[in-house]
């Protein structure tokens, strides 16, 4: 029978190699304990990366969709807040206008000044920008929705300069705002009448931001306030106070209709908000499911990792013990 002995050099090399392997294993296990993720995914899944790749791709899409949905929700929230603000402006001026026939001249002027201020506020609201995007400018997201309020009011005053009756002024202002291709669209509207979008929300859903400053309900609100703002000028309608009071009264009557149209527009935006929120919930659920799947594939079991760590430590201790004994071995003890 032949006995094969290992030389001292080979034996030393083998112990050092085993020690290095165990040290590396201990480092990997320690990382797994801290990160709770497997240190060598490829070994754990036997090189079958396709399922994990599908999960990672799905998570990337969910992240992209979440960003789009958050952006859409922010824009819709800004539109809803803007519509609420405009509705408040119309409501506030309506009560003053409807009682204009009983007011004195100074009170009538104050109503005109109030309407001028509120018109400027509405224009500012419609020119709101969120994250560099104009909220009510439709497709022209880089442009303001409307020209400055002072420019619009100046153009309207020029339009009715020769009018001396309330009915005549109202007719001309309505035509100024509502004629297709007319003054409002060519001079006042700086954004686009075409809605923004479609925005990709999910793999099957898109969203079009349909509300723009060119919407009939918003045009009507602007028209009402711009008409009332004329009352701030004593020379309006040829300086005829009775005609000015009649103008204010007629605008007060139309205020309720303007509010109702704004409520309908708010409801439309609200429906879009609800739709986006539903998709956000669904996308969040899909993302959570994918994260759970990824964790199943990549997460390290704490109990198994702790057990393997103790086993590796014991084996390393054994190697150290053997190495120490061999280093003390003499020829006498060997014989």
From TrEMBL:
Protein keywords: Cell projection, Cilium, Flagellum
Domain of life: Bacteria
Gene3D superfamilies: f41 fragment of flagellin, N-terminal domain (1.20.1330.10)
Name used for this protein in its record: Flagellar hook-associated protein 3 FlgL
Naturally occurring in which organism (per UniProt): Rhodovulum imhoffii
Upper taxonomic lineage: Bacteria, Pseudomonadati, Pseudomonadota, Alphaproteobacteria, Rhodobacterales
């Amino acid at each position: 029978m032949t006995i094969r002995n290992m030389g001292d050099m080979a034996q030393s090399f083998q112990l050092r190699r085993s020690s290095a392997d165990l040290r590396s294993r201990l480092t990997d296990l320690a990382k797994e304990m801290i990160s709770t993720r497997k240190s060598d995914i490829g070994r754990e899944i036997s090189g079958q990366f396709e399922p994990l790749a599908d999960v990672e791709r799905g998570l990337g899409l969910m992240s992209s969709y979440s960003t789009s949905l958050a952006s859409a929700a922010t824009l819709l929230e800004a539109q809803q807040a803007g519509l609420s603000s405009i509705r408040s402006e119309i409501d506030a001026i309506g009560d003053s206008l409807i009682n204009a026939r009983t007011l004195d001249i100074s009170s009538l002027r104050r109503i005109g000044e109030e309407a001028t201020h509120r018109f400027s506020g509405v224009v500012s609201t419609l020119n709101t920008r969120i994250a560099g995007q104009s909220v009510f400018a439709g497709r022209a997201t880089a442009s303001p929705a409307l020209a400055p309020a002072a420019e619009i009011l100046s153009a309207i005053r020029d339009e009715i300069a020769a009018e001396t009756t309330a009915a005549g002024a109202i007719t001309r202002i309505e035509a100024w705002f509502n004629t297709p291709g007319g003054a409002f669209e060519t001079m006042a509207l700086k954004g686009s009448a075409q809605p923004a979008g479609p925005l990709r929300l999910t793999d099957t859903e898109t969203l079009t931001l349909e509300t723009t400053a060119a919407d009939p309900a918003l045009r009507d609100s602007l028209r009402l306030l711009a008409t009332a703002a004329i009352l701030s000028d004593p020379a309006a309608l040829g300086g005829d106070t009775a005609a000015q009071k009649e103008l204010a009264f007629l605008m007060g009557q139309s205020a309720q209709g303007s509010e109702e149209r704004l409520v309908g527009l708010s409801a439309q935006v609200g429906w879009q908000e609800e739709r986006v929120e539903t998709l956000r919930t669904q996308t969040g659920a899909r993302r959570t499911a994918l994260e759970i799947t990824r964790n199943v594939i990549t997460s390290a079991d704490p109990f198994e990792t702790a057990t393997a760590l103790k086993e590796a430590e014991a084996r390393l201790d054994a190697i150290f013990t053997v190495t120490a004994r061999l280093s003390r071995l003499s020829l006498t003890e060997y014989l």
